[in-house]
Amino acid sequence: MAEAIARPKKRHTDMTKGPIAKTLFFFTLPMFLGNLFQQLYNMVDSIVVGNFVGPSALGAVGCTFPIVFVAIAVASGLGMGCSVVTSQYLGAKDYGSVRMSVTTSLIFNLVVSIALSILGMAASGTVLKWMRTSPETIDMATEYLFIYFLGLTFMFMYNTIAGTFRALGDSKTPLYYLILSSFLNIGLDLLFVIQFGMGVAGVAWATMIAQGVCAVFSFIHLMNRLGQFEKRADHRVFSTEMLRTIVRLAIPSMLQQLSVSISSVLCQTVINGFGPMLVSGYTAANKIESIAGMPIMNLGMAVSTFVAQNIGAGKMERVKKGFKSALIMVLIFAAASCVLLLLFGPNLVGIFVNREVEGAAEVINWGTYHLVHMAFILFIQGLMFTGEGMLKGAGDMNLLVFCTLTGMVLRTICVFALAPKVGFAAIWFSIGLGSLTEVIIAFWRYFQGGWKEKAIVSDSGDEAPEEAGAEA
Questions:
Q1: pLDDT per residue over 129-153, tens digit each?
Q2: Where are the transmembrane segments (predicted)?
Q3: What does the alpha-carbon distance between residue 36 and residue 26 come to, in Å, rounded to a whole number?
Q4: Run of H or E including 335
Q5: CA angle at residue 291 from 138 to 343, to 5 degrees?
Q6: Please, which residues have CB within 8 angstroms of residue 225's CB and are 6 or more apart in sequence?
């Protein structure tokens, strides 16, 4: 291990000690609130265009999501490489390597984001045509995507920085910047769409500006935080050796995320074939479902950080106890979300459209139909996020790719095979089947134990005994 490095002055969440369930819950809570605000301004985008521009505009924003998700997948995958490495170095108390891993990742992600931004602006219109986007929405969707890709670097920067803060055990700082970004985006949505009449382009510009402000301020904050980690004797702002370590984890993670996004693009081509009203209902339901699934998704992210830090500290038994605690918590969260969707589904979908506009009732009916079925699939997805979070934290990326790719291929095949026979029902059925497949593979890996051999760093000492009540 590198020479001893002074501890950072500010206190970070040390997930290698203390009560497990309490640590996971309070680490998850700021992430949930942060994603809630993020989804809030995504929902406001849809609510504003759905009510003040029309159902076709709502469908235009919705049909761009799979393409946007491809960009997000690349950003998340690359960021995951840094996050796992940073968390394991933090658990091992190698603070110099923590600093070098973060700066190396930021530079690498900047280069990738610029290249992807240029590609996205050039190719998005062609991809929308290939996805069979309806004539009523394709022009608006193309304009939205061009503006989105123009500001892609801001999204990449913020995702990387937020992941870094979480890797350092700080899930509160990203929350504060997301709150700032959310309120700014909402205000700009209302100004650009209602006051200036900019339509779908207005929500795209609002999102770009809000993400830009959030990225710049969070970058300044992160640089100040990194200044508290003393430099190693061989410190470099960009380390090719560190980049190789990050990329070794990032590429499998990126492929895993891309498999999800490509599957979404393919499934969206099927959904687009059902007509603009169904697409609009699905878009509204998707926004609501994203919020309902956030607690279980965020708990999976917390498990990833928890596992990485404890593997870095050599505490394998604590990893197992944390995984069991997370499973109990995720099932409780899924049950609460399921009840809310079943009770309030039609009312929630109705927020996205003006009920007096022609076609609004059809949009609400399709959206409610999808929500009712997805409510029960949340239980399966909760187990999936927890299992895959454990694999990510352990650095078991190859198995994670296999797990996700298998689920996504099965989901895509199922959609295309069943859609001509059962219609829209093929969507939720395929999601459930694909998620269940991923659960089986991830849990097999957990009980088989191969994930224990994938650590990047590890404390060489014997595992310390747990504090009293740590398994609670």
A1: 887 777 777 888 888 889 989 989 9
A2: 20-37, 57-85, 106-125, 145-168, 175-197, 203-224, 245-271, 291-313, 325-346, 366-387, 399-419, 425-444
A3: 16
A4: helix 316-350
A5: 105
A6: 8, 10, 165, 168
